[in-house]
Design brief:
Helix 5 packs antiparallel against helix 7. 43% of the residues lie in helices and 17% in strands. It is built from 13 helices and 11 strands. The longest helix has 36 residues.
Length: 380
C-alpha cells in the first residue's frame, strides 16, 4: 500500500552526533521514516559536533561533504535528522542547490500521505500549516485566488503579511472544523458510557504491533505493516467479552521520539480516545533493545495529553524472544502485564480474559481507588 513508487526521490541523510545516548536509534528511525515516506536512501553523512552551526546547522566542511554525496549519488534531496531553523534550511538549499528538509517536515509528510479519514486530513493540514507559520513561508495566496484575488492585499501590506494573514485564516477554519468533530465524538462517547460499555485504547510506540493485535482481537482488517506510522486514523471496533459484556477497542497512532509538538497538538482530538479510555493497553515491542526508552517516550506523550487511565503493559513479539505467553501480577495480585505474540496469536485469549476481569471489576465496584483503578489492576 505504501511501497516506494518507481522514480521516487533519492535522498542523502544527514545525522550529527551531539552526544545524545539515543543517537544510533534516532538515526535508525530516520532511515525507516525516509523509506516509509517512499524515498530511497542513497547515502548517510554523519559527524560529531558540540553544538549546531548557526548558519548551516552542520559545519562548512560537512556541508561540502553533503554536496559531494549529492553529486556522487545523483540524489535530489537532503534530509536532516534534526529540526532546522528557517534560516538554516534556506542557507543549505542555496548552498546545495537542492531541496533540504528536516525530521519534523519528513514526519509531517508521512502523516499527509497516510491520513485517510476526513478528520485525519484536517489534523495533518493543521499541523503542517502551524509548522510552516513558524517559518514565515510565502506562497499561500493560492488559498484565495480561486475566489478572485483582486484587491486581496490591504494598504501597505507586503506579500509576506498577506500570506501570513491568509494562513492564519485557514488555521482558524481548520480548528473550528476539528472542534465540531470533537464535540460529535464526545456525544458518541457519552452514549457508550450510558450503555455501560468498557472503553479500551491500544497505545504504544510506532511499529510495536498495535494494529496486528487489534485485528486479531476484533477480526478487523485495519492496515498493519512493518513500517513506521502504518496507522494514523483511530479505528474503533466492538469486542465481545462473553458474560462480561462488551468493550470498544480503539487502535491509535503510534508514538516516536521527537514527535513534532505541532503534530501532538493537532492530533489531540484523535488521541482523546486514549485520554477518555477506561483502560490503556500499552503495547511494547519486547524484542526491541530500546524498549525501556520507548516505554518512557510513550508515557511522556500520554502524560502530556492528560491520558491518566489505568494502564496494563502488553509485551508483544514474545516469539522472537522465545518466551511463553502469560499474565504477570504484583504481590497484591494486581495485573501488571500480559505477554503475547500478535504474529502467532499466542496469548490473545489472555487479553480477552484480562479485559473481562477489568470490566467486571469496573461494573461490580462502581467506585474507584484513589489512583482511579479498580481493585485488581495496577497503574503506571
Amino acid at each position: 500500500m505504501f511501497d516506494r513508487p518507481s522514480g521516487a526521490d533519492a535522498a542523502i541523510l544527514v545525522s550529527l552526533d551531539f552526544g545524545d545516548t539515543d543517537y544510533a536509534e534516532s538515526l535508525e528511525e530516520l532511515v525507516q521514516l525516509t523509506e516509509s515516506a517512499g524515498v530511497q536512501v542513497s547515502a548517510v553523512v554523519e559527524g560529531k559536533r558540540s553544538r549546531p552551526d548557526a548558519a548551516f546547522f552542520a559545519g562548512t566542511g560537512k556541508v561540502s561533504e553533503i554536496a559531494d554525496a549529492l553529486q556522487e549519488n545523483d540524489a535530489g534531496m537532503v534530509i536532516f535528522n534534526h529540526e532546522l531553523s528557517a534560516g538554516q534550511q534556506r542557507n543549505l538549499e542555496q548552498r546545495l542547490q537542492t531541496r533540504v528538509i528536516d525530521r519534523t517536515t519528513l514526519i509531517l509528510d508521512i502523516f499527509a500521505q497516510r491520513a485517510r479519514s476526513h478528520e485525519g486530513k484536517l489534523q495533518v493540514e493543521l499541523a503542517q500549516l502551524e509548522h510552516l507559520a513558524t517559518r514565515l513561508v510565502r506562497g499561500w495566496t493560492h488559498l484565495e485566488r480561486q475566489k478572485g484575488g483582486i484587491g486581496l492585499r490591504g494598504p501597505g501590506e507586503t506579500q509576506l503579511e498577506t500570506d501570513r494573514r491568509l494562513l492564519g485564516k485557514r488555521v482558524k477554519l481548520l480548528k473550528e472544523k476539528l472542534l465540531k468533530l470533537k464535540r460529535q465524538h464526545q456525544v458518541q462517547r457519552r452514549a457508550r458510557a450510558r450503555g455501560n460499555v468498557l472503553s479500551v485504547s491500544l497505545v504504544g510506540y510506532t511499529n510495536a504491533g498495535k494494529s496486528t493485535i487489534f485485528n486479531r482481537l476484533t477480526n478487523a482488517n485495519a492496515y498493519a505493516a512493518d513500517q513506521l506510522f502504518a496507522t494514523l486514523d483511530t479505528t474503533s471496533r466492538r469486542l465481545y467479552l462473553g458474560a462480561s459484556g462488551e468493550a470498544v477497542l480503539s487502535d491509535t497512532v503510534g508514538f516516536i521520539k521527537h514527535l513534532p509538538h505541532t503534530l501532538v497538538a493537532a492530533f489531540r482530538s484523535t488521541l482523546t480516545e486514549a485520554v477518555e479510555a477506561d483502560l490503556l493497553l500499552h503495547v511494547v515491542d519486547s524484542a526491541s533493545p530500546n524498549r525501556d526508552q520507548q516505554i518512557d517516550e510513550v508515557n511522556a506523550v500520554l502524560a502530556g495529553i492528560g491520558a491518566d487511565a489505568p494502564q496494563i503493559m502488553l509485551f508483544n513479539k514474545i516469539d522472537i524472544r522465545g518466551q511463553a505467553p502469560g499474565v504477570e501480577r504484583d504481590e497484591y495480585g494486581r495485573i501488571v502485564s500480559i505477554h503475547v505474540s500478535a504474529l502467532t496469536g499466542d496469548g490473545m485469549a489472555l487479553i480477552r480474559d484480562v479485559l473481562s476481569e477489568f470490566g467486571e471489576n469496573l461494573r461490580v465496584e462502581n467506585s474507584v481507588s484513589d489512583t482511579g483503578a479498580p481493585a485488581g489492576f495496577a497503574t503506571h
